[in-house]
Amino acid sequence: MNMIRSLLARTPGPVKLIVPLASALLVAACGSAAASTSAPASSAAAAGSSTTGTVITTQAGSAGAFLTTASGRTVYLWAKDGMNMSDCSGACASAWPPVPATGTLTAAGSAKASDLGTITRSDGTKQVTYDGHPLYYFVGDSAAGQTNGQGSDNFGAKWWLVAPSGAQITGTDTAAAAAAPAPATSSAPSTPSSSNAGGGWS
User: Fold this and answer.
1) Distance of CA 16 to the CA centre of its chain
2) What is the DSSP string of 81-112?
3) Per-residue pLDDT tens over the stretch 81-98
4) How many CA atoms does the CB half-sphere of 153 hold within 13 Å?
5) How many angstroms separate the CA atoms of 196 and 94, rounded?
6) What's the rounded Cα separation, in Å, for the pair 181 and 141?
7) Which CA distances in Å does 189 have to 84, 98, 142?
8) What distance in Å separates the CA atoms of residue 169 and residue 158, rounded to the nearest whole number?
9) pLDDT above 90 as % of the chain
10) Helix, strand or coil for residue 128?
11) CA distance linking residue 198 with residue 202, whole number of Å
12) Which sign does the torsion angle of CA 190, 155, 64, 165 carry?
């Protein structure tokens, strides 16, 4: 200890000031390095908590409440499908994209969690079902709440809105119909753009 004091006594004044300053900077650098290593962990945790799954909820309509996704996109059932089985593929699935099952399925509004399920399609993807009915979008719906596919007979069978009970709604949704063009009824609609094929909305 006496030797250190002796060295400090012989050290010029400016150098004596640099030593504590360098020590302080070293401590600060270590502290910021520790903070930066913990940042990615908290970002990863935040990213994990923001991961969501498919949400099926409800919206009021003139023909009764019907199912939509969380973004307000209307979903339909097809009268030709069997319970927990989809008959819609190829051109049909291009015009009526299956509602994909992602993450944890969640019910909101008047939808019932106990009625939510999934099926595996022939291409290996998962599709959301409600009360055993495979659910679909319609490419003719371009805004939240539109029901342009209601009552359509594309591909040889009727497409209907779905009630929170799981039953098909066969009435006309006049509120949405008044603000949107009539549904297409041809059996071979033109191929939709990729942005409409289920990926443009959630």
Assistant:
1) 62
2) PBTTB----THHHHHS-B-B--SS-EE-TT--
3) 999 999 999 999 999 999
4) 2
5) 9
6) 9
7) 26, 16, 16
8) 11
9) 57
10) strand
11) 8
12) negative
Evaluated on CA atoms 77, 104, 48, 59, the torsion sign reads: positive
Give the pLDDT confidence score for residue 30 in this predicted structure: 42
Mapped onto helix, strand or coil, the DSSP state of residue 8 is helix
Q: Quick check: 72 pLDDT over 90?
A: yes
Instruction: Answer yes or no: are the C-beta atoms of 197 and 139 closer than 8 Å.
Output: yes
> Does residue 139 or residue 30 have the better pLDDT?
139
pLDDT at 2: 54
Residue type, 161: L
Q: What's the DSSP call for residue 50?
A: T
Phi-psi domain of 171 (left: phi exceeds 0; alpha: psi -120 through 50; beta: other):
beta
Q: Is the dihedral of CA 177, 181, 186, 191 positive or negative?
A: negative
pLDDT tens-digit map of 55-70: 999 999 988 999 999 9
Read off the DSSP letter of residue 120.
Answer: E
* Other beta carbons less than 10 A from residue 173's beta carbon: 23
177 pLDDT exceeds 90? Answer: no
Token couple for 70? 């969380």
- Token pair belonging to 160: 């209907």
